[in-house]
Amino acid sequence: MPSHLEIPTPSHPRIVVSPPRLNLRKASAYKDRGPLSATSSTFNFNHLLFSPPPSPSLPALLPRPRKVHRTPRPSRILRMLGWICCGMTMCYLTILLMAGRSNSLPVLMMPSWVRQEFEMVGIDDVPDFATPIVVSDHKGRTHWTVSIPPTAEFPLPFNDYKTMAETCREVATRARDLHSSDEAISAMVHHQSVLDFAKKDSYFIDVGDAESSGLLPAPETRDKKTSSRPKGHLVGVDETAMAHLPVCERSLTVALESSDAGLGHALMMLWTFYGLAQKQGRAFFIDDSRWAYGNYADMFHPPPVPACRPPPRHEILPCPLQARHLVISAATAHDSLMGMISTSSLPFKSEDGSQILYSLARTGHNALFKPVQQDIDYIKSRAEFLRRESNEKNGVSAPVVGMHIRHGDRHPMEFQYHQSYIPLNTFSDRAYELADIHHNATKAASHAQEASEPFIVIATDDPMVFETDEFEHASRSQDHIRLATKSAIQHVNQNRLALHRFVDETIGWEGGFYAPMFWSLGQPPSSTGKTGNMVNKDPTTIPVSADTLRLRNYLGRAYVMDLAVLVESSDYVMCTVSAMGCRLLAVMMGWERAFERERWINVDGDFTWSGLNWDLDL
Questions:
Q1: Half-sphere exposure of 532 (CA within 13 A, CB side)
Q2: What is the pLDDT of residue 50?
Q3: What pTM did the predictor assign?
Q4: Angstrom distance (rounded) from CA 201 to CA 178
Q5: Phi, psi (5° rounding) for residue 556?
Q6: Going by C-beta distance under 8 Å and a sequence separation of 6 or more, which residues neighbour residue 348?
Q7: Whole-number Å distance between alpha carbons of 261 and 540
Q8: 51, 316, 328, 370: which has the fewest Cβ within 10 Å?
């Protein structure tokens, strides 16, 4: 019999180690939660609130606590901002609806482009001064119109047109606000601007319609002092001979009055608005009753006369642009130009916007730029003389380079020279570059081995340019009317044996054309013995004599002949686009010659042609 294996018994008792999650406490029975007695005071509801514990061998099914991020995620920030914007939009629309019902929209409808505040007051009769007004018909419908007394002067004072243009916007807004709130809310939601104001306003009623419907009194009943004699001076219009013609259905009148002494802005304004008038089917008139250069007919031929007679002067309005009869002055030209281009459906902001504006000015140039016959004859003869002189001195292959150099109170747009002038060597160096280009372009037709020197013709407001080293041998564009220097005047008066009129002081045009010098032409000296200070005075209010207008007319004719001779005689024209004369030269040359053939050269930075506006981004 096999012996049994004896395993020694350990001296220490066996220890059982329980898992750390194991609950070693004795679980109490569920029935222990019950009451001791149904009538005992220790009766409670604990047995109903506590359920049996889970299995003691399994861990508790609890999720891990999420980590709290102190910095929120970008997506959460964007989501929160989106909800905030939606909430603010809903609140804003709700306020608009509530405000429309409570008739409080006029406060919210204040246009942002109104530069000054106007007070709307109620009156029983039409005012005795020119102003836009709100009127109501017999059905209580609100309209607005412009009331001008029949006895008022025409054209109105220069500053009155600017004020009326601003007041028209305010009155138009008020008339729109007095109508239904839905239309007012729609008008407010859409951004209001000058171009929006140029759109047709259904609440505006023209002066003629207002008089026929009784909203405005008839001229003869409004003022018994009304004169049948027309006011102002419309160039080339004989209203007595045109009495049998009907009144023009639509017209545009340009008032040649400005605080700007330059002639270039007036010419560009005339040409551009003539083109716009043709686009809109309006008869075109020019008023020169207060023009600083005198009579328009002393410088140019009158414009084409339409087959209708001008309207009554109190019906010619500066605003709105939908008026049948418009008047444009230098005070309203910029805003009117933008608005009329918008209403004419011209793609002004497109890539060819500058060409659209150019075509308008070119149309006006072809119809209006007709100097008096004496100046036309001189321009032709002078251009032929300069051409012959160029061929004799530099040969047939040498180009004629015309230069328009503007000094005085007009500074370049290029930042480097915006407080001085473009250096003269820039003009001369560029002229020799153009001579090389011209020689290479005509090399097949020329037997010259080297490029000839350019023949330079200069038109400038600074006579000192011809005394510099760069242009001492240059030719003047015209010498029919010249700006004299102080030394030239003294040289003329140095013969003491000759009888001369007493000259108070000698003043020349050194440095160029300055507006104060222009306004002081022909003015009597002050008590101090010097010409009165014209800087702090409104030049449009200064009375002028016949001699003053004659001197100014000479300046204007010299300016016109300078530009015309440059265009007629030059192969290339160089200028600074900051000067209006430079932009006029581009129009006079034509689009194909100036831009496609690149014969119009700007030396004032990288700026391009911009018509009436040198700060306009085309």
A1: 15
A2: 52
A3: 0.75
A4: 14
A5: -65, -40
A6: 338, 341, 342, 356, 357
A7: 10
A8: 51
Report the pLDDT value the prediction gives residue 257, as an integer from 0 to 100. Answer: 87
Per-residue confidence (pLDDT) for residue 372, from 0 to 100 = 96
What digits encode the pLDDT tens for the residues 316-338? 999 999 999 999 999 899 888 88
**Position 59 in a domain:** no
How remote is the C-alpha of 616 from its chain's centroid? 6
| Chain CA centroid to CA 496, Å | 55
- Are 316 and 284 within 8 A, CB to CB? no
**What is the rounded (10 degree) CA torsion for 345, 349, 351, 353?**
60
Residues 172 and 312 in one domain: no
Q: Whole-angstrom Cα distance, residue 219 to residue 151?
A: 9
Torsion of CA 152, 155, 159, 162, to 10 degrees: 100
Q: What is the mean pLDDT of residues 436-457?
A: 75
Q: Are residues 444 and 362 in the same domain?
A: no
Last residue of a domain, one of 175, 205, 222: 222
The residues, ordered by sequence, that sit 6+ positions from 490 with a Cβ below 8 Å of its Cβ are 506
* Domain end residue (candidates: 327, 349, 368): 368
Query: What pLDDT digit, counting tens, does each position of 212-225 carry?
Result: 888 888 887 766 55
Does residue 425 sit in the same domain as residue 472? yes
436 and 559 co-located in one domain: yes
Question: For position 447, what pLDDT does the model report?
Answer: 58
Residue 142's DSSP bridge partners are 136
Q: What is the pLDDT of residues 276-289, one digit of tens each?
A: 999 999 999 999 99
Domain that holds residue 612: 376-618
In which band, very low, low, confident or very high, does the pLDDT at 385 lie, cut at 50, 70 and 90? very high
Answer whether residue 362 is part of any domain: yes
What's the CA dihedral at 475, 481, 482, 483 to 10 degrees? -150
Listed in sequence order, the DSSP H helices in 32-73 are 46-49
Judge if 198 and 262 occupy the same domain.
no
Return the closest-CA partner of residue 296 out of 387, 359, 371, 216. Answer: 371
- Alpha-carbon gap, residue 405 to 605, rounded angstroms: 15
Residue 342 sits in the same domain as residue 392? no
Q: Is residue 134 part of a domain?
A: yes
How would you classify residue 527: left for phi > 0, otherwise alpha for psi between -120 and 50, otherwise beta?
alpha
482 to each of 297, 407, 557, how far by Cα in Å?
A: 21, 16, 10
Spatial separation of the C-alpha atoms in residues 99 and 547, rounded to whole Å? 64
Report yes or no: 317 and 311 within 8 Å, Cβ to Cβ. no
What is the C-alpha to C-alpha distance for residues 580 and 560, in angstroms, rounded to an integer? Answer: 12
| Lowest-confidence pick of 108-112, 512-516, 532-536 | 108-112
The reply to whether 611 and 462 lie within a common domain is yes
Question: How large is the average pLDDT for residues 576-605?
Answer: 95
In a domain, 138, yes or no: yes
Q: Do 449 and 585 reside in the same domain of the chain?
A: yes
Burial degree of 611 (CB within 10 A; 0-12, 13-18, 19+): buried
Region of 578 (left: φ > 0; alpha: ψ -120 to 50; beta: rest) is: alpha
Average pLDDT of the chain is 78
Closest CA to 336 of 311, 309, 317, 361: 317
Q: Contacts for 519-523 with beta carbons within 8 Å, 24 or more apart?
A: 519/261, 519/292, 521/548, 521/551, 521/552, 521/555, 522/547, 522/548, 522/550, 522/551, 522/552, 523/548
Whether 194 shows a pLDDT value over 50: the answer reads no
491 φψ region: left (φ > 0), alpha (ψ -120 to 50), beta (else): alpha
Question: For helices 546-569 and 373-394, what crossing angle results, to 10°?
Answer: 40
Q: Which run of H or E residues covers position 401?
A: strand 400-405
